[in-house]
Amino acid sequence: MSDKLVMAVNAGSSSLKYKLYRLEGLEVVCGGLVDRIGHEDGIFKLTYNGETTKEVLPIMDHHKGVELILNALTSKGIVKDKNDIVAIGHRVVQGGKYFSKSALFDADTEKKIADLTPLDPLHAPAHLMGFHAFKEAVPEAVAVAVFDTAYHQTMEEEDYLFPIPYELSEKYDCRRYGAHGTSHRYLAEKAIAAYLGGHKGTRIITCHLGSGSSLAAIRTPLGGVMMGTRSGDLDPSVSYYLSEQMGLSSAEVYDLLNKKSGFLGVSGLSNDTRDVEEGYFKGDRRCITASNLFARRVADYIGQYFVRLGGVDLIVFSAGIGENSPFYRKLVLDRVKEALGIVIDEKKNEKAFGGKEELISAPDSPVKVAVIPTDEEKMIASDAVKAYEGKL
Ligand code: ADP
Question: pLDDT value at position 220?
Fold first, then answer.
């Protein structure tokens, strides 16, 4: 077997997630996380052979993070030589109008990502830092950028345009781009192969419900549900009204809607649905409200996409909540099952958590419902392999 390896990287402003695969067959070798970059008490984690090691040490920048990863890989004998890593795929959240598929991470791609910073000030600089750190450490590896927005670029104008003055949409590229595209792409490919007899052209709604959430109507993806700390869709006058009432700047209102809303804001307890679910069963009124609000909004999107697709063959639940919470799946499905004629196998729903893939609809249900664990890293690694083989 060849020793060639491929790395999937997700670089944030203070973190670096990584997963290493064998090039052949994309078998996972190891993975981990560098967290609290920029701090004296940075965290370095590595999971290999089912065992996780954790170190706390100063990690002042992304270069140090990459050095830690590569040193650990070689010193533990996981990798003979860092240059065995022949391809590195980098997750990039925003590809704007430029990228409808993954791209070689060359000077042109780098410039475009930098130019897109105003559309994604949170992630773009971090992605570039991650890219540079790896480029310096493993210069020979083929680098590829895998965009969350790329998969959504097939949206039609009527789906991506906001009803604002048209010139502004054009001038500032202010439009809907979609989220978690790499996950939706993975789920759709997997779902088509596993549950729809390989038929393309079927109608699928994928629900990526994690700390960030999005739904996609394949082939017509959109976004905007309530999330862990984010409000999701709102009447735009809410921003204006709150800023007037509270004397906040637009940046402060934006922060409030991003970091203090969603499950956290409504429940007043936590952004983690495990806590909110517990609160629900203890009868906490705000946890009940937060859960119902979330389920209502996901259900409304499913309804909207059902109409947009002219029906649906399969609904997929995925990510932290979608994969692990029979309770939230039921709360959502109870709100759509009558209209869509869905019949759920409650026992199967109860048993589907912890990384299990499961068809949770009953055999006679006209719409199938599946739980599919997502794997964005594998998609990123697979695109890195394609780039290495010149087949991107
Ligand atoms: P990210 O978007 O950061 O990748 P995940 O997809 O891992 O997030 O989702 C994390 C969230 O999923 C947690 O914040 C929590 O709300 C939810 N979650 C995880 N496990 C469970 C569970 N067993 N039951 C209910 N919710 C869960």
Answer: 46
Q: Using a 6 Å CB cutoff, which residues line ligand 1?
A: 210-212, 228, 272-274, 277, 319-321, 324-325
148 carries an active-site annotation: yes
Q: Residue 141 has what pLDDT?
A: 97
Distance of CA 183 from the midpoint of ligand 1 (Å):
15
Options 35, 148, 284, 375, the catalytic residue:
148
Cβ atoms of residues 220 and 309 within 8 Å:
yes
d(CA 176, CA 199): 28
Q: Check residue 219 and give its pLDDT.
A: 53
pLDDT one-digit tens code per residue, 347-357: 999 999 999 99
C-alpha 389 to ligand 1 mean position (Å) = 35
Six token digits for residue 208: 């990526």
Residue 199 banded pLDDT, cuts 50, 70, 90? confident
Tell me: pLDDT of 221 over 70.
no
Q: In this structure, what token pair is assigned to residue 32?
A: 């981990």
Task: Give the other-Cβ count within 10 Å of 11's Cβ.
Answer: 28
| Residues 179-217 as b or e (16 or more Cβ within 10 Å = b) | bbbbbbbbbbebbbeebbeeeeebbbbbbbbbbbbbbbb
